Structures are given as structure tokens and as C-alpha cells.
Amino acid sequence: MIDRYFTFNDRSSKDFNLLIQNDFEVEAGDADVSYTSVPGRNLDIVNTNNRYKNGTLTYECYIDIRWFNDSFYNNLSDLRRDLITWLNIDENFEGYSRLQDNLDENYYYLARLAKAPVMSYVTSKCATITFKFNVGPFKYRMDSNEYYKVKSGQSVFNPEPVNSYPILKIEGAGAINLTINGIIYKLTEIGKTAYIDCERRRIYDDNGLKNNIGMFPNYQYPILKYGENKISWDNANVDVSIKFNWRTYI
């Protein structure tokens, strides 16, 4: 039998002796669309908002304060207080933090607690408690969460069926014309180290934003499509590393 647990905010449910009782089920969000009916026309007009709604991930757990060391918790209310403190998050990613389940260990989710945990007392010492997380429409591969150095002219392969929004780390000096899949993205001055965050659409260094150094076609940031992606640049004095952020639908 697999010892089931989840991690969130850099802590594990095992730290709180939570016994997960339900199956691992993620409810995906629908595509965000609306419809317009037109008199005399049979098919409604589809209005796409080019996005997916968030989904949910629920944990139904059993807890007993007698599983802790003596006098660690006097009652279930004290335990619930600490659980809520653990699950509240800082605004470190637009209000989301990483959630990983060991039954889906190759991926992580961006999640936040959807509402306060619901606790149902069985006795004064034990209870069931339900955690419902609001999760983003994509899950991200754990093995693409570090920077990998690439060479000019190299191809990288996106193994997931969804475009990724990478973070590019460029170290060196001078200007650079960075070509990804035939599209040229220019930085006018690197200034030692510059980052291109393609999801948040910003360029920055250790001192702050530097969006003014970027010259991108139609103001579009790079993406890495499914399959092969060709990458090259014209400044031999720089090093380029990429955090790929491979992702797929939940």
C-alpha cells in the first residue's frame, strides 16, 4: 500500500499525521467560453476567451491528536489552527503555491486553498477534515524546473502537448539577437545577467525590471511549442540557460 501524502508550501501532510482517505482525483476546469444567439442562425456564435478555468483537487483526511507526541496538541482546534496557518500562502506567484501529490510525483500544480478546511468531529480526539484546493489549469513537470544550459544552434524537445512559457537566463555583455523557431528576439544590452520570463511577460535582472531592453516582434514573448524547438544567437560571448517549464493539462 502506498503511503499517500501531499506537499504544499514546502511542508508535507505527513508533518501533521493526515491520513488521506479519498482517491486521487483532479477535476479539470472547462474552457472559458460564452455563446451568442443570433436570430435566424442555428449555431450559436462561440466567444472564446483564450483561457481555461481553474480546477479543483480535494483531500478528505482523518486525523487523531493521539498520533502526536504527548501534550503536543491539547485539542483538535489547536491542530486546525496550525493547519490553516500552513495552508495560507504569501503572494509569491499571484497568490498560488506549489502543490505536489506523491501519486503524481513527476508534476506539480499551482494551487491555493479554496476555502477554510471543513472539520467534522468523530470524538474529542479525532475528526475528518476536508481540504479543497483551487488549482491552475496546467500541471508542470518537475524535471523542467531548473535552468539547463543550451548551445547556440541546439534543438530542444518539448515532450508535452502544450506550448510552454520558459524563463531564459542570459549571461554576458553587449546586445544579442536570440532566434527561437525562426523568430528573432533582441536584447539591446544584457548588462551581465538578464532574465526573460515569458509567462509573466517581463525582462529583469537582480536589480529590477528591464523591459526597455527587449525588442520582440509584435511584443510577443518566446514560447516553446510541442516537439522540436531550434534555438540560436549571434553573440558568442554570452551563455544561455533555460528553465523550460514543460506543462500539460490537469
What is the gist of this entry?
The chain is mainly beta and 250 residues long. Helices cover 5% and strands 47% of the residues. It starts with 5 loop residues before the first strand and ends with a strand.
Describe the protein:
- The protein has 250 residues and is mainly β.
- The protein folds into two domains: 6-142, Beta Barrel (Elongation Factor Tu (Ef-tu), domain 3), CATH 2.40.30.200; 146-249, Sandwich (Jelly Rolls).
- Helices cover 5% and strands 47% of the residues.
- The chain contains one helix and 23 strands.
- The chain has one helix at 76-87, and strands at 6-8, 11-12, 19-20, 26-27, 31-36, 45-52, 55-64, 97-101, 107-113, 118-121, 126-141, 148-150, 155-158, 167-172, 176-180, 183-187, 192-197, 202-205, 208-209, 214-215, 227-233, 239-243, 247-249.
- The strands form four sheets. Strands 1, 2, 3, 4, 7, 8, 9, 10, 11 and 23 form a ten-stranded antiparallel sheet that branches. Strands 12-22-14-17-18-19 form a six-stranded antiparallel sheet, with no helix packed on it.
- It is globular, with a radius of gyration of 23 Å.
- The mean pLDDT is 90.
